[in-house]
Amino acid sequence: MTAVIVTAGLTKRFGRVTAVDDVDLTVPHGVRFGLLGPNGSGKTTLVRLLLGLVHATSGSMEVLGRPMPRHAARVLPDVGTLVEGPAAWGHLCGRANLRLLDAAGSRRPGRGRGRRARVDEALDRVGLGGIDRRPVRAYSLGMRQRLGIAAALLRGPRLLLLDEPTNGLDPRGINEMRALFTELNAAGTTVVLSSHLLTEVEALCDRVGVMDAGRLVLTEDLTVLRAPTGRVLLRTSDPAAAAAVLDGRVEVRSGALLTVRHDDPAALNAELVTRGVPVAGLDAERRSLEQVVLALTGSGSDRVDVGHAAHRGRR
Amino acid sequence: MIGVELRLMLRRRRVWLCWLLLCALPALVAVLLATTRLAPPPGRGGAFLSAVVSNGQLFPAAALALVLPVFLPITVAIVAGDTIAGEAAAGTLRYLLVRPVSRLRLLVAKLVSVAAFVLLAVLFVTVTSYFVGIAAFGFGPGGALGASGVASLSGAALSPVDLILRTAAVVGYLALCMLALGAVGLFFSTLTDSALGAALGVLALVVTSAVLQPLDAAAAIGPFLPTSHWLAWIDLYRDPILWDAVRAGTQVQLGYVLVAFGAAWANFTTKDVTS
User: ipTM value of the model?
Assistant: First the structure.
């Protein structure tokens, strides 16, 4: 399995502020990768670096197997992207926007053929197939977002690099886009999305990277992060009896809900039932992505503030 | 990319409004002159204005002299200031660059679209004012349709073909002068994300140049000020044509285009696009 994105020691400073700090990121081919982190943690700058929009202070990167930004002309045609919200020429309609955008990047004269069909297909995919000729200026936020995603899909990209792709969409729209990204991913497109919406990443991605204050503090498969914690959540109508039976193993008791230290919910269930304790619900506790991220970004910023203040140029 | 730029420009209402206003000012002057017949005496008022009352065919020259000092630079500043900064503010700049459109190609396309804008602006003013002039003032003494001669500034008569050739040269020369401003605007536009700021920068340059031009103390830099050659086109209506000022002006204006475009390229190609 080859890597679609590889960065080594990637660093970007804006004046005294280090926006991206020594990032070694590897995104394997075919994954749905979620880049998480609080606002200002460097997600967008990292995406801009990968696209050659901003120039790295130091470090190197490869996208789709070629060094960037030197080979931008070869790499970028295969990358579909949404950077910090969609943008369009407000005085033109959505279709005209996509046609011009499609024409803008093409050098070979043959690319003009099939443009109409390409644009229509991209619009269809994001649910704007029946769009009229009103200018983009009059679009709602959700429609602009869909148009931006359509623009990203225009060339049939091998890599989708999406920054906050569900901004402004309603729950149904978010669901549609999630299905669309999953479908594209199944067809072989690597999907990288950055978001501060944990639920969004949790629902779509199978691998996550967490950024904090410019550093990449974690890259891991979601299944590993969400492995059982060795505790079981028990709901019972008789918490006192349960606590008596599980003497010493109950860690938290709040009303009818007990947190029990135990590896195997099935065995715990059998034990409780044989001892005559009513069990209303039982589930292995898993850490939510939120807990993981909050723990990482919290401690990360603390440590960095004290130890790396001079190096990072931030107070 | 050039085609995309031209299509984008031609679909902007602002661009058409600029052209419309440029053509409207001379038309207003023509209406006033035609109804009052109060032409400024020779030697005062706008260039050629005293002569147009007797011959409408001279009105394009008068119209160009009317829009040149202020109106034309303003429209050029607006359009050129918008080139990169406008795309940056709208966010479309980043999407163009990741298409990918190389930064140099984008700048070239922008400069070409500015050139198209100024050329069409000067051309529209010339053509509309020709018809406005004929409608308002007729062909002058003894003139049958298009056949009459027009007196050059030196007094000798110019044939219609000669007049058209000279006017075409004037259009080209003025378009070049405006393109020099446009190239400066393109450079300013790469420095900021504010189209208005870039446009005002261009106007500041025009005003500064116009202020310095008559100063004896600034005589040393006088020939290199952008505005100092703007009136050289009048020499193209003399007989024989006085080429010296036109040639010097062409060189200086070309120099402005090259230097400003080079500066724009140097700045833009290394710039972090964070808009």
Answer: 0.82
